[in-house]
Amino acid sequence: MPRWKKYTLICLVIAASCAWYAVFAESRSGLMVYFFDVGQGDSIFIQAENGNQILIDGGPGDAVLAELGNVLPFYDRTIDMLVLTHPDADHLNGLVEAVKRYKPKAVLETGVLHDTAQYEEWRTFLAKNKIPIAHAKAGEKFLVADGVTASVLFPFHDQEGEKPKAVNDTCIVLRMDYGETSFLFTGDIESKAERMLAILRHDAVDVDVLKVAHHGSKTSSVAEFLEAVSPETAVISVGRNNRYGHPHPEVIDRLSGLEIPVYRTDLRGTVVMRVFPDGTYVVE
Ligand SMILES: [Zn+2]
Questions:
Q1: Looking at the domain assignment, is residue 21 inside a domain?
Q2: Which residues constitute the domain of residue 46?
Q3: How many angstroms does the Cα of residue 167 sit away from the middle of ligand 1?
Q4: Residue 63: which residues within 8 A CB-CB, separation 6 or more?
């Protein structure tokens, strides 16, 4: 190779590495919250500025892997904590795929009994790989990173080994705080859990950004709950033309009646929020 060509090549390689670094460094400033577009289900990925990561639910299939691949550099094969809000397929199945590819330091789940092949596979995988499991109970608090905390608001008691009649109302509800900005991740809780939270944890559920419960089903987002949460922004994770008719027009009306802007994954794809330490945030 002529000398000039060699130098050009070296310069190109250096320039490409700098560009890659710039993209990567840029992606790390502020707290990032991704409401992944995984179809009819939930999957939320949180990355703190120091690189600590949480994945809440995995959606109904393996779409979460492509979403994580878009966000994470190829060499990152760990996620600090996986959260399974409840073992329904539209939250669990993608998490079963994610746990095989990204080794978690810990799993937060409810430990309820649920009779499906995917849940069996999930539990077997966790046990075989000796992944530490915490069972969620209101009052627990996790330090995600410096200045970023996640608090369990629901369930009110440890549900390990219980066989619930209504699995939606066993969901983990997490509040996350970063500076002045707060989020509420609600899984698929329905009116019963929402009313309990609105009455018993009235102040704790008051946040800026609400992940609307149960994909905008009309059995959730009751008026008392929305008034207690009084969010500035709402996000609905929902599949295009899903067979459940989610989100229900009544829920959309309730949110617009309270003048709460709504971001939907079926209309926008993945909803990306960047939160700054001064309490401001942007939807990208
Ligand atoms: Zn669901």
A1: no
A2: 30-283
A3: 10
A4: 36, 37, 38, 39, 43, 94
